[in-house]
């Protein structure tokens, strides 16, 4: 059992862009350090998630990222999980939905995100801590 809750290992606040912005801006954001995803919003509410996978799809489709709006891009679905849930719950949700990221919410407001790498780090840290105790 992994003794962590999502709120303990999640990343605070994801990058956000309105769906009318062009894909080039989202690609720029993804190249910034420690940015794994961009939450695409419509009137401030999550509309979809833009990741490196979507960049690959755009390139494969031959899209012009400078003229393609985020609304016209393939986007990952918005799947949220409460910060108080366990990492086991998050892992099950990722597996069930075929996702590498979940948006984390508190009181129905997006406060950050959790990636599969965050879960891996938490497991590794837990194992390391356990081995030091013996």
Summarize the structure in words.
With 134 residues, the protein is an alpha/beta fold. Helices cover 38% and strands 26% of the residues. It has five helices and seven strands. The strands form two sheets. It has a four-stranded mixed β-sheet. The chain has a three-stranded mixed β-sheet with strand order 2-3-4. β5 (80-82), α4 and β6 form a beta-alpha-beta unit.
Topology:
Blueprint: H1 6-9, E1 11-12, E2 15-18, H2 23-30, E3 37-42, E4 45-51, H3 52-61, E5 80-82, H4 87-97, E6 101-106, E7 109-115, H5 116-133
Parallel strand pairs: 2-3, 5-6
Antiparallel strand pairs: 1-7, 3-4, 6-7
Summarize the structure.
The chain is an alpha/beta fold. The protein has helices at 6-9, 23-30, 52-61, 87-97, 116-133, and strands at 11-12, 15-18, 37-42, 45-51, 80-82, 101-106, 109-115.
CATH homology group: CBS-domain
Distance between the termini: 17 Å
Counted up, domains total: 1
Query: What's the assembly state of these chains?
Result: single chain
The CATH level-2 architecture is identified as Roll
Described by the principal axes of the CA atoms, the overall outline is: elongated
CATH topology: CBS-domain
Strand content: 25-35%
Structural class: alpha/beta
Q: Radius of gyration, rounded?
A: 16 Å
What order do the strands of the largest sheet run in, or round the barrel if closed? 1-7-6-5
Taking pLDDT < 50 over at least 5 consecutive residues as the criterion, the unreliable ranges are none
Mean pLDDT over all positions:
91
Put simply, the count of helices is 5
């Amino acid at each position: 059992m992994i003794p962590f809750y999502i709120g303990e290992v999640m990343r605070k606040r994801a990058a956000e862009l309105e769906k009318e912005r062009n894909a080039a801006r989202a690609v720029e954001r993804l190249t910034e350090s420690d940015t794994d995803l961009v939450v695409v919003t419509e009137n401030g509410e999550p509309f979809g998630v833009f990741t490196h996978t979507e960049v690959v799809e755009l390139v494969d489709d031959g899209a012009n990222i400078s003229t393609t709006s985020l609304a016209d891009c393939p986007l990952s679905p918005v799947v949220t999980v409460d910060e108080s849930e366990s990492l086991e719950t998050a892992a099950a949700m990722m597996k069930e939905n075929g996702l590498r990221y979940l948006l984390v919410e508190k009181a129905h407001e997006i406060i950050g995100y959790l990636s599969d790498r965050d879960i891996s780090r938490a497991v590794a840290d837990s194992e390391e801590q356990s081995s030091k105790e013996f």
